[in-house]
Specification:
Helix content is 38%, strand content 17%. The chain has 18 helices and 17 strands. The chain has a 9-stranded mixed sheet with strand order 9-10-11-13-12-14-15-16-17, sandwiched between helices. An 8-stranded mixed sheet has the order 1-2-4-3-5-6-7-8, with helices on both faces. Strand 14, helix 11 and strand 15 form a beta-alpha-beta unit. Helix 2 packs across helix 3 and helix 10 packs across helix 11.
């Protein structure tokens, strides 16, 4: 579970927060976006903010941060728009499109125009994070009624950025367990995401001199502490700006470097609105147009995608991907993993959805409550991973699919924590035809796991014994790099599981672990009655395999009792299934299960 490089635990920022509707999906110039109008409780202002994303894993990490910031701005009367550049996240990619810095800048300009129309505000602030800040600077001299720039940890040297990205990519691969010979070291690649070649090429021409003529009069500059390039750009821009609001981005590392333990910088959520309120256009109230109605639809080639809101109170955001013409009645529902948004780790959710559509199979991917672009549900516990209430979101998905006429068979697909929800939801609701679960750590829990457990999944006992004999382990032990209490807890859990298995014939349901065992087998019996298959997929040596062996034996012979269950072991890959070749193997398994279900109808 520690391999889920995802959008971090919900922080105090959202604890006890009021219920928010999800932002409105919109389409403009072939681009998908999410529009957040001013709140009904605050007069709308003649000022709106366009969010411009960073690249790669930073984009994964800032997705929730951008949503929370947009909700904060809405509460003070400021509308906003978030968009995905061509070739990134949920953007629908035209097959012959040229993707470079100029195309991303054009997307920003189209977003600014769309934002003015959607919000009714004439004045726009560009807010860019990382590489998005560079896009904001390049677009700034072409945006009508530019009210200001908000630049967060800006990229100003393309060559330096690519070097830093290469180093960070190696760190991420090491952290999630990608074998050295399976790593993609192409320029711009990180966490299985490949930067479009046109972006890589044009980044080499990006230098601080490119921003010397920015005409922004008002700048909010969030500089990383002790980052020389940030301060150099800040001084350069200060020469031409009328006002410069400095913000020390002390929370930067915790926002983007360790997503599972992410912290949303509360001081930023106070400083940015305060700066915006000081801009002249904010003083003017407007009568905004009605929010957009209906879903947003874009089509490219043989794929059509529909972005929409659904669920009670329009609180969830999802995307239906279909063949542009025809297709089967079967649907694959793609669940989020941890705090990854619906685009998925290494953009796997998007790529799988479009591969299925090319084969005539529709899919639906969505952000569950508190993840990515879907606001949390007040009253739910802060740690949403492995929370039973996520199964409620699956009922909302089934109702949505039925409501749009997709009443045919549907398979649930998820990895790690998403696999847990997929398995539990499919077992509990006979309307689901089956499930495909990838690297599930558990099928059920005795008690809801703590954040500590979520962040530190027990390894296999064999893994502990092998590492104990290595000199590097001994060195790390003496240097304090190994958390001995966590290791002891994890080993104890593994030993307890095995001991309970031996005592079960004597003590039966008196053992909590035996009651859990019986419940897991009851779930598998329920799934064995479904028309679709239940596919268990594991990366070789994944920690979840130990729990599989506990339930079904070291040779998994117990699975024979459930003939519609298949087990697949992916060789030479990590828990996140990061390498492209491994992802394709996984996609093929999903495609085969989906097409088999379609042919049974």
């Amino acid at each position: 579970m520690s391999g889920d490089a995802t959008n971090g635990a919900v922080t105090a920022t959202e604890n006890g927060a009021k219920a928010h509707e999800a932002s409105y999906p919109v389409a403009f110039s072939g681009i998908m976006g999410l529009f957040k109008p001013a709140s009904d409780t605050a007069p709308a202002r003649d000022l709106a903010v366009l969010f411009l994303s960073p690249w790669g894993i930073d984009e994964l990490c800032t997705r929730k941060f951008f949503r929370i910031t947009a909700e904060t701005l809405a509460d003070v009367g400021i509308a906003s728009l978030r968009l995905d550049y061509p070739g990134t996240a949920n953007a629908l990619d035209a097959p012959d499109a040229v993707i470079d810095i100029a195309s991303w800048t054009d997307a920003a300009l189209a977003g600014a125009d769309a934002l003015r129309t959607l919000s009714g505000a004439a004045n726009v602030v560009l807010l860019g994070f990382g590489l998005g800040a560079a896009i904001a600077l390049k677009a700034s001299d072409r945006v009508e009624n530019l009210a200001g720039l908000a630049l967060l940890a800006p990229v100003v040297s393309g060559r330096r950025y690519l070097r830093e990205l290469s180093v960070w990519s190696a760190v991420v691969d090491e952290g999630v367990g990608v074998a050295p010979h399976m790593r993609d070291t192409a320029p711009g690649t990180i966490a299985g995401l490949s930067m479009p070649q046109g972006i890589v090429t044009t980044l080499t021409t990006l230098t601080p001199d490119a921003f010397a003529d920015s005409r922004a009069e008002h700048v909010f500059f969030a500089a990383r502490p002790d980052n020389t390039s940030d301060h150099e750009l800040r001084d350069r821009l200060a020469d031409g700006a009328t006002t410069m609001r400095d913000f020390v981005f002390r929370g930067y590392d915790k926002l983007v470097s360790n997503p599972l333990g992410q912290e949303i910088p509360a001081d930023f959520l106070e400083a940015l609105p305060d700066w915006l309120k000081g801009l002249a256009p904010y003083q003017t109230a407007i009568n905004p147009p009605a929010p957009p109605s209906g879903p947003a639809v874009v089509t490219a080639g043989d794929v059509r995608e529909t972005a929409l809101r659904f669920g009670h109170g329009e609180r969830l955001v999802g995307t239906l991907t279909e063949p542009a013409m025809g297709g089967s009645e079967a649907t694959v529902v793609l669940l989020t993993t941890g705090y990854d948004h619906q685009g998925g780790w290494a953009r796997s959710g998007v790529d799988l959805a479009r591969q299925l559509a090319a084969k005539g199979v529709a899919s639906f991917r969505f952000d569950s409550a508190g993840v990515g672009d879907s606001p949390p549900v007040p009253g739910r516990r802060e740690e949403v991973l492995y929370d039973e209430t996520q199964i409620d979101d699956m009922a909302a998905v089934r109702s949505f699919l039925d409501g749009i006429g997709r009443r045919g068979p549907a398979l649930l697909f998820g990895r790690c924590s998403g696999a847990y929800v997929a398995f539990r939801a499919a077992a509990a609701d006979e309307r689901w035809a089956g499930c495909i679960v990838v690297n599930p750590y558990a099928f059920r829990w005795l008690t809801p796991p703590s954040a500590e457990v979520v962040n530190s999944a027990p390894r296999a006992l064999a893994d502990y014994s092998q590492k104990a004999l290595k000199l590097d382990t001994i060195r790390r032990l003496f240097s304090g790099d190994i958390d001995m209490s966590a290791a002891a807890r994890n080993i104890g859990q593994r030993v307890t599981q095995r001991l309970s298995k031996r005592l079960a014939p004597l003590l039966g349901p008196l053992l909590a672990t035996e009651r859990l065992e019986r419940a897991v087998h009851a779930d598998f019996r329920a799934l064995s009655q479904r028309p679709g298959r239940t596919c268990l997929v594991y990366s070789v040596d994944d920690p979840g395999l130990d729990n599989l062996y506990v339930h079904f034996g070291n040779q998994v012979g117990g699975l024979a009792a459930y003939p519609n269950v298949s087990l697949h072991i992916l060789p030479d890959t990590d828990h996140n299934v990061t390498p492209r070749v491994s992802r394709q193997q996984l996609f093929d398994i999903v495609e085969q299960a989906a097409t088999a279900l379609s042919h049974e109808r």
